[in-house]
Backbone:
């Protein structure tokens, strides 16, 4: 992906120690299992000595739990409680994680979660069942200009026209010359289509070079969350209407009392002409 800012060690806009703390928490979230100091240091390409100090500090503060027998760390419940105030009580983040994980398994597509960060879209969650990922696939923390991606335009569809024009002008003024630019008229046309459909779809997202279908999730807070299904091939493009419906069903399940309800999942599979024993193959 040519235009993604990955927040590398050379990124002067972030403080190294703060960045590494968050990278540790993201790593534990992605692996979902205890890890020792060496594994974490190697995964993050950080010195073992400084990684050890950060891990001990986080454990002392109660954000990590240290197992002396296995010499491993894992995230504590305190981490899970940090962001609870940012969304309403009806929005279940744990349930969202379960639903998106199952959606990845059922469709074979990658699932992205993203939010607005000033004039950028920033990926806060990436779920995939594929061990080998394309270089163009975004990772957690990556940022792109809002007008460059389908999910960015989806988030912009909630803005008023004045804000859309102001953001578009800022992006065009700040982005490098080599980057593709959209005029305000072009952005408005695309956003009008998104508002009419209720979701965004792009056969080939120019920024990520992947097909994508995405919808918005209401969190009960001013910050909107976009969820998208993406594939490096054009199968998402072929089945975009069905994939949009799958997203709808997944979000309905998230609000249901029992999101793992087998009847709901079976009904969804039948809806797309897929046998209960099969998966919906997108990739």
Residues:
């Amino acid at each position: 992906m040519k235009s993604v800012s990955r927040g590398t060690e050379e990124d002067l806009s972030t403080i190294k120690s703060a960045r590494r703390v968050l990278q540790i928490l993201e790593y534990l979230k992605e692996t979902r299992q205890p890890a020792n100091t060496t594994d974490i240091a190697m995964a993050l390409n950080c010195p073992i000595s400084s990684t050890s100090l950060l891990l001990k500090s986080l454990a002392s503060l109660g954000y990590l739990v240290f197992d002396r027998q296995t010499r491993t760390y894992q995230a504590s419940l305190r981490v899970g409680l940090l962001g609870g105030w940012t969304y309403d009580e009806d929005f279940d983040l744990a349930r969202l994680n379960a639903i998106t994980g199952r959606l990845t398994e059922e469709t074979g597509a990658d699932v992205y979660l993203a939010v607005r960060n000033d004039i950028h879209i920033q990926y806060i969650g990436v779920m995939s069942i594929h061990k080998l990922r394309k270089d163009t696939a975004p990772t957690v923390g990556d940022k792109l200009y809002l007008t460059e991606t389908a999910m960015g335009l989806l988030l912009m569809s909630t803005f008023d026209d004045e804000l859309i024009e102001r953001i578009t002008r800022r992006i065009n003024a700040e982005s490098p010359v080599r980057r593709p630019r959209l005029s305000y008229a072009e952005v408005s046309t695309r956003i009008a289509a998104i508002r009419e459909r209720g979701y965004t779809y792009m056969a080939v997202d120019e920024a990520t070079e992947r097909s994508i279908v995405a919808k918005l999730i209401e969190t009960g807070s001013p910050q909107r969350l976009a969820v998208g299904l993406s594939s490096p091939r054009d199968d998402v493009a072929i089945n975009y209407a069905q994939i949009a419906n799958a997203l709808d069903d997944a979000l309905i399940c998230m609000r249901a009392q029992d999101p793992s309800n087998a009847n709901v999942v079976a009904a969804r599979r039948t809806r797309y002409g897929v046998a209960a024993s099969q998966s919906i193959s997108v990739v």
In short: The first strand starts at residue 64 and ends at 67. The chain has two domains: 16-81, 84-271.
